[in-house]
């Protein structure tokens, strides 16, 4: 199995090169001291052979994390040859073999291959150790004219060598595996951290986008409605100002009131947007279902006869749903005044159906031959979905338009927060 880990960095390559140099220098010092002390006696090889051996034992360490298996094999074979030929250096070679075996466990990506390489080297070393120690003991015992029995000091020496090597190779194997697992965990943690950071950025971008959509929808609902009313009333005032000054003054008063209302709602919206860091409240908007008659009065004042009817027994409705239903009614009446024609009329009905609440706005007027959904239609659909309800918005066959929204009260009872 091959695990995915980060590639080797230039800094790590420099460290390996430095490590190889340190091992070589330490080996030269060790070889010089070993040659002087004559650790192998008369069988000891010349010093220059030990120096050649140190090149093969230390230089491959510079590429230990690039080709860990090859480096481990080269260093182990060099060590085997050095001990067999009685080269005067064993300490730096031991360190080099330990580092090479450790590196196979810590850095080799093919984990099955890493296990095979280490097990093969360890078994080979133990077989070689047992045979060489056994024949050495027999030779010494023959010279001393004693029998190498089960309780002899020579067998004890072999057992001590085996114990030391067991600890030696087990340590290299264990620490290599531990380092590999630690790197995997660190890599996974870094990946999760990067994923969380990306998700945080995406969430922040989505939050900004949702805020922009909410602001655009609120501005559209406030501005489009009141500007549409003021435009109709201003046109009516212009037509009657010469014939009926009283009526013109009434229309101008209605225009003034619409402007004041629009400014009040815009001010409230801006105050809500500026209140950053606060928890959203149900009072994010000042409108509710009780304000729908005000929409009807404004529609009548603008010249479109409109009737409002409440059907059924009133029930508790969360403020977020009330705001959304009010805005849908507002947008529906605004569209009727803009597109239905001068002879159009409208009917607004609010029905309490026990387990649901339904708002229906129907207007007469022109037949929509090629209706195209705009921002208003999209905003109504979003508000209906945000309330957990459904919406039908389509032209009527006899002319005009019908908008019907139904929101289950079982769902609305669980809704909290400000309107989406």
Characterization of this structure:
The chain is of the alpha+beta class and 420 residues long. Helices cover 65% and strands 8% of the residues. The chain is built from 11 helices and 5 strands; from the N terminus they run ααααααααβαββαββα. It has helices at 10-37, 47-58, 68-84, 91-107, 111-143, 153-240, 245-274, 292-301, 319-339, 375-386, 409-412, and strands spanning 306-311, 346-352, 356-363, 390-395, 401-408. It has a 5-stranded mixed β-sheet. α3 (68-84) packs parallel to α5 (111-143), α5 runs antiparallel to α6 (153-240) and α9 packs antiparallel against α10 (375-386). It is rod-shaped, with a radius of gyration of 45 Å. The model is unreliable at 277-284 and 412-420 (pLDDT under 50).
Order of helices and strands: HHHHHHHHEHEEHEEH
Task: Give the spatial strand order of the biggest sheet.
Answer: 1-2-3-5-4
Indicate the radius of gyration in whole angstroms: 45 Å
The level of helicity is 55-70%
Share of residues in strands: 5-15%
> What's the mean pLDDT score?
78
| Largest sheet composition | 5 strands, mixed
Structural class: alpha+beta
Distance between the termini: 50 Å
């Amino acid at each position: 199995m091959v695990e995915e880990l980060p590639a080797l960095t230039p800094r790590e390559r420099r460290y390996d090169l430095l490590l190889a140099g340190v091992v070589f220098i330490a080996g030269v010092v060790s070889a010089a001291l070993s040659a002087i002390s004559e650790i192998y006696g008369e069988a000891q090889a010349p010093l220059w052979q030990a120096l050649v051996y140190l090149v093969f034992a230390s230089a491959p360490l510079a590429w230990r994390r690039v080709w860990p298996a090859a480096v481990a094999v080269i260093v182990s074979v060099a060590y085997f040859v050095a001990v067999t030929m009685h080269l005067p250096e064993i300490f730096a070679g031991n360190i080099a073999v330990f580092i090479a075996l450790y590196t196979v466990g810590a850095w080799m990506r093919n984990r099955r291959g890493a296990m095979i390489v280490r097990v093969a080297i360890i078994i080979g070393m133990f077989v070689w150790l047992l045979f060489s120690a056994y024949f050495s003991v027999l030779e010494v015992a023959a010279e001393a004219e004693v029998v190498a029995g089960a309780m002899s000091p020579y067998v004890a020496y072999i057992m001590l060598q085996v114990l030391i090597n067991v600890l030696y190779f087990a340590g290299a194997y264990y620490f290599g595996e531990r380092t590999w697992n630690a790197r995997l965990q660190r890599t996974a943690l870094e990946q999760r951290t990067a994923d969380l950071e990306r998700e945080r950025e995406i969430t922040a971008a989505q939050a900004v986008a949702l805020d922009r959509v909410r602001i655009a929808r609120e501005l559209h609902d406030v501005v489009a409605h009141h500007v549409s009313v003021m435009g109709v009333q201003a046109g009516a005032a212009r037509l009657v100002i010469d014939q009926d000054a009283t009526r013109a003054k009434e229309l101008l008063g209605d225009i003034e009131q619409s402007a004041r209302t629009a400014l009040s709602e815009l001010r409230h919206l801006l105050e809500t947007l500026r209140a950053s860091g606060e928890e959203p409240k149900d009072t994010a908007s000042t409108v509710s279902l009780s304000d729908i008659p005000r929409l009807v009065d404004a529609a009548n004042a603008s010249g479109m006869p409109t009737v409002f009817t409440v059907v059924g027994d009133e029930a508790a409705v969360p403020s977020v749903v009330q705001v959304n239903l009010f805005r849908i009614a507002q947008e529906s009446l605004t569209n009727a005044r803009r597109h239905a024609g001068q002879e159009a009329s409208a009917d607004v009905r609010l029905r309490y159906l026990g387990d649901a609440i339904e708002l229906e706005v129907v207007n007469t007027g022109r037949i929509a031959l090629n209706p195209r959904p705009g921002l208003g239609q999209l905003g109504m659909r979003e508000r209906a979905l945000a309330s957990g309800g459904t919406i039908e918005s389509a032209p009527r066959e006899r002319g005009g338009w019908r908008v019907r929204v139904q929101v289950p009260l079982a769902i609305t009872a669980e809704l909290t927060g400000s309107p989406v």
